[in-house]
Write a structure and sequence with these properties.
By secondary structure, the protein is α+β, with helices and mostly antiparallel strands. It contains 16 helices and 14 strands. Keywords: ATP-binding, Magnesium, Metal-binding, mRNA processing, Nucleotide-binding, Nucleus, Transferase.
Length: about 700
C-alpha cells in the first residue's frame, strides 16, 4: 500500500469527484519542510514505541481468540449440532485512528466483533461475552454502554483500552475471509448493526480513495494534533472528531495527489478557508444503493437541509459525519482555518518554523463571560455515567442559546472537562460567551438566557438512569472568577497588560518562540497570557452587569470550587526546529495563489448542493426539543426553595437579580421564585467610569 499516482484508478474511476487542483510534485523546499514537520510530530510524542505496537497486535490477537471461543459457547447454548458449533466463528476488525495508522501512545483501539445470526447483541454480546471478559484477571475498567446510539463495550485488556462494537450478520457462519466492504453485508441487518459496521466500512474506503497513504497519514496526524491544540477536536462538543478530520484531509490529498505533507497542510487551510459551507465535502459520489437505506440528501430529507458543515462518509449508506456542528462552532473553526492559512502563508515567505501553527489556544483568556456547568455524583460508576450524559447534552445548550438569542450570542464550548483533586466525584465544563461579530452594541440590549438554561436543565433531568447524588449547577462567571483548578498546577496565570490590536498581532507573531510542545496528544489547551485571543477577544467593551448571577455551588456536601487541578498537562522543553534559509525560486506566488483560488471556486460551483436555495437556512428544531421530565425532577434554589418542572414553560415572576441560578436536584416539589440570568453586553467602563 505504498505510493500511488493520481491516475491510478479503482474500477475505472478517478479518485475524487472532481479533477485535482494541482498535479505538481514537491520542491526541495517541500522536502525539507516535510522532514521538519515529521521531526516536530515525533518530538511532540505522537508516535508509539515499537514495544507498544507489538503489545497492541498481541492484544488484538487475543481478543480475536476470545470472541471465537464465545461464539462457540453461544452456538452450543442455542442447541446447534456439534458440527455447526465447530464451524461457528466470529471475527475482529479494527477502525478509527488505529486502522488509519495515526494513533498515538496510550490511544484506545476501536474494534468491531462480527458474529452470526444466532448470537444476539443484548443477551449474548452484553451478557455472555461481558461475563467471560470480567472473569479474566487482565480485563479491567469494564464499562458497557448498551443504550448508546452505537452500542459499545469499553474495557482494558492487558492495559490496552478497547472500544468493542458488535455487528450481527444474517449469516449462520462467519467466513475468515469475510469482506465487510461489500454492500451485500448489510442485507437484512438491523439498524445497530448498520451503524456498527459503518466505522470499518468508512475507514477502509478512505484508505482506498487517497492517492498516497503515507502522505495522508502524516498530514492527518498533523491536523489531529493541530485541532487538539486549538481546541476544535471534539465531535460531542459540536466541533469535529477523528473521522471528520480524516475525511477533510483525504479530500485535500485527492486535490493535490502528488504533494508532500508540508504542502498538504498548507493547502488544507487554503481550501477550507475559501470553502463555502454548507457545500458538502465528499470523497466520492453518493450511491443510492439497492437496500433502501436512507442516505444523506437534503433534497429529499428535510433534516439534512439544516446541516451547517456536511462532511459525507464515502461508504454506503452515505451519512453526514458532522451533524453536531452548530453556528457558533462553525464560526470558531472558520476562524481557526483562517489563522492556519495566514501562518502557513507567512511560513513560505519567511521560512518560519512549525511552532506558531501549533500554539495552544488560550480558552480562559479569550472571553470575558463564561457559563460554568458543575456536576457531581456519589461514586466512580455514577460519575462516569452522569458525566457522559451531561457531556452529550451540552451541544444542545449551545443550539438553544443560538436559537433564543437569534444567533446574536455565540457560545464556545471547551472540548474538555476539568476536575478538582479535592473533589473526586466532581467535574466542570465551560462555555465562552460573546456577542456575534457585527452585532451593534446596544446599551439596552441584554441576553436573558434564564429560560434557556432551565430548558437545558430539564433536558438533563430527563436522564432515565438518574441516581441519588447526581446533581448539576449552571452559573455565569466572569473571566476573573474562573476557578484556579482549571489551570496547570492550580495556578492562575498573570494577566498581560492591555495592548492595542496592532500590539496583539505583533505579540502573536513573536509568541511562537516560547511555545511548549505537549508530550500528550490529548492536551487541548495550555492556558496563559497569549495574544492569540484575537477576534474572540476583540470586544473590550463587552462585560456583564454587576453580579447578576452568583455562584453558590452545588447542594452536595463537601463541594467547593478551588484547589489543584485534576488535569495534569505534561510539557517538554521548548522544541526549536533549525531550518536553513532557502533561496526562493522566482516563482510567481501571487499568480499561483490566484489560480488555486479560482480552482477552489470552481469546486464550489460544481457542488451538487450549490443550487439548493433552502440549504442551511436555520437550525434543525429537533435539537431544541425537550423530553417531558418526570414529576420527581425539580429545579432547586438554595435561597428560595424549589419549583417543579413539568415540561411546560412557566410564567416569569419578578425575581431578585442577585440570586444564584437554580440547581438541578430530585427533591420535594415546592413553590419558588425563579432567578434570572441576563447577560448584559453594555460597557461597564461607560456605565461606571471604571475599566474592566
Amino acid at each position: 500500500m505504498g505510493s500511488q499516482g493520481f491516475n491510478n484508478q479503482k474500477n475505472g474511476q478517478r479518485l475524487g469527484i472532481t479533477e485535482p487542483i494541482s498535479l505538481g510534485g514537491p520542491s526541495e523546499y517541500d522536502v525539507i519542510k516535510t522532514d521538519e514537520l515529521e521531526k516536530f510530530l515525533a518530538d511532540a510524542g505522537l508516535y508509539e514505541s515499537h514495544e507498544e505496537a507489538i503489545s497492541r497486535e498481541e492484544v488484538l490477537g487475543r481478543l480475536d481468540q476470545i470472541v471465537k471461543i464465545w461464539v462457540k459457547r453461544v452456538s452450543r447454548a442455542r442447541g446447534l449440532n456439534e458440527q455447526l458449533v465447530q464451524e461457528a466463528n466470529a471475527k475482529i476488525f479494527t477502525f478509527g485512528s488505529y486502522r488509519l495508522g495515526v494513533h498515538g501512545p496510550g490511544a484506545d483501539i476501536d474494534t468491531l466483533c462480527v458474529g452470526p445470526r444466532h448470537a444476539d447483541r443484548d443477551e449474548d454480546f452484553f451478557g455472555e461475552l461481558k461475563k467471560m471478559l470480567l472473569e479474566m484477571p487482565d480485563v479491567t475498567d469494564m464499562h458497557p454502554v448498551p443504550d448508546a446510539h452505537v452500542p459499545v463495550m469499553k474495557f482494558k485488556l492487558s492495559g490496552i483500552s478497547i472500544d468493542l462494537l458488535y455487528a450481527r450478520l444474517s449469516l449462520w457462519v462467519i467466513p475468515d475471509d469475510l469482506d465487510i466492504s461489500q454492500d451485500s453485508i448489510l442485507q437484512n441487518a438491523d439498524e445497530k448493526t448498520v451503524l456498527s459496521l459503518n466505522g470499518c466500512r468508512v475507514t477502509d474506503q478512505i484508505l482506498r480513495l487517497v492517492p498516497n497513504i503515507q502522505s495522508f497519514r502524516t498530514t492527518l496526524r498533523c491536523m489531529r494534533f493541530w485541532a487538539k491544540r486549538r481546541g476544535v477536536y471534539s465531535n460531542v462538543a459540536g466541533f469535529l472528531g477523528g473521522i471528520n478530520w480524516a475525511l477533510l484531509v483525504a479530500r485535500i490529498c485527492q486535490l493535490y495527489p502528488n504533494a508532500l505533507p508540508n504542502m498538504l497542510v498548507s493547502r488544507f487551510f487554503r481550501v477550507y478557508t475559501q470553502w463555502r459551507w454548507p457545500n458538502p465535502v465528499m470523497l466520492c459520489a453518493i450511491e443510492e444503493g439497492s437496500l433502501g437505506l436512507q442516505i444523506w440528501d437534503p433534497r429529499r430529507n428535510p433534516k439534512d437541509k439544516y446541516h451547517l458543515m456536511p462532511i459525507i462518509t464515502p461508504a454506503y449508506p452515505s451519512m453526514n459525519s458532522s451533524y453536531n456542528v452548530s453556528s457558533s462552532t462553525l464560526q470558531i473553526m472558520t476562524e481557526e482555518f483562517k489563522r492556519g492559512h495566514d501562518i502557513c502563508e507567512a511560513m513560505v515567505l519567511s521560512n518560519g518554523s512549525w511552532l506558531e501553527l501549533f500554539e495552544p489556544y488560550r480558552f480562559f483568556e479569550a472571553y470575558k463571560n463564561y457559563l460554568q456547568i458543575d456536576i457531581v455524583a456519589e461514586n466512580d460508576e455514577d460519575m462516569l455515567n452522569w458525566k457522559g450524559w451531561v457531556e452529550s447534552r451540552i451541544r444542545y445548550l449551545v443550539l438553544k442559546i443560538e436559537r433564543d438569542t437569534s444567533k446574536m450570542l455565540q457560545c464556545h464550548p471547551h472540548p474538555g472537562d476539568f476536575s478538582d483533586k479535592s473533589n473526586p466525584f466532581h467535574c466542570s465544563y465551560f462555555l465562552g460567551l460573546q456577542r456575534k461579530e457585527g452585532v451593534p452594541v446596544n446599551e439596552a440590549k441584554k441576553f436573558d438566557i434564564r429560560l434557556t438554561v432551565d430548558e437545558f436543565k430539564a433536558n438533563v433531568g430527563s436522564y432515565s438512569s438518574w441516581k441519588p447524588g447526581m446533581d448539576m449547577n449552571v452559573t455565569h462567571i466572569k473571566r476573573r472568577d474562573i476557578p484556579a483548578f482549571v489551570f496547570p498546577g492550580g495556578i492562575r496565570p498573570t494577566r498581560p497588560a492591555r495592548v492595542s490590536l496592532e500590539g496583539r498581532q505583533t505579540l502573536e507573531t513573536s509568541a511562537a518562540g516560547s511555545v511548549d510542545v505537549a508530550t500528550s496528544v490529548d492536551v487541548n489547551v495550555v492556558d496563559g497570557p497569549d495574544a492569540d485571543t484575537r477576534k474572540r477577544k476583540r470586544d473590550d467593551d463587552t462585560s456583564i452587569a454587576p453580579e447578576l448571577v452568583r455562584n453558590d455551588g452545588l447542594s452536595t456536601d463537601g463541594f467547593s470550587v478551588g484547589g489543584v487541578t485534576h488535569m495534569r498537562v505534561n510539557v517538554v522543553d521548548q522544541v526549536g526546529i533549525k531550518t536553513e534559509i532557502l533561496d526562493q525560486n522566482n516563482e510567481d506566488i501571487s499568480g499561483q495563489l490566484t489560480s488555486e483560488k479560482l480552482a477552489i471556486e470552481k469546486l464550489m460551483s460544481e457542488s451538487p448542493q450549490e443550487d439548493d436555495n433552502n440549504f442551511a437556512k436555520g437550525i434543525d428544531m429537533e435539537f431544541s426539543t425537550v423530553k417531558p421530565v418526570p414529576s420527581s425532577v425539580t429545579i432547586s434554589n438554595n435561597n428560595t426553595g424549589t419549583f417543579s418542572v413539568n415540561g411546560n414553560l412557566e410564567e416569569l415572576e419578578a425575581p431578585e437579580l442577585d440570586v444564584p441560578l437554580p440547581n438541578l436536584s430530585h427533591a420535594t416539589v415546592a413553590s419558588q421564585k425563579k432567578p434570572i440570568m441576563r447577560l448584559s453586553f453594555t460597557s461597564l467602563a461607560k456605565a461606571t467610569g471604571n475599566s474592566t
